[in-house]
Write a structure and sequence with these properties.
mainly alpha, 4 helices, 57% helix
């Protein structure tokens, strides 16, 4: 899904202020996405189909 939207792991990681390796672990389910990041995503951006934040909310579900 991230790749279909043409977002790189590095790009999403920068949005979240984490390194790419950490983000990769979130995406692969090796680590849970911290509540602080989920809270930030829910309060600072409204989801839309073309929005990287929407993607993150979907993988967190």
């Amino acid at each position: 899904m991230r790749e279909d939207s043409d977002y790189t792991q590095e790009y999403i990681a920068k949005l979240l202020n984490v390194n790419q390796r950490t983000y990769s672990r979130y995406e692969n389910g090796e680590h849970a996405i911290p509540l602080t990041i989920l809270s930030f995503l829910q309060t600072h951006k409204k989801p839309s189909p073309k929005n990287a934040y929407s993607y993150l909310l979907l993988i967190a579900a």
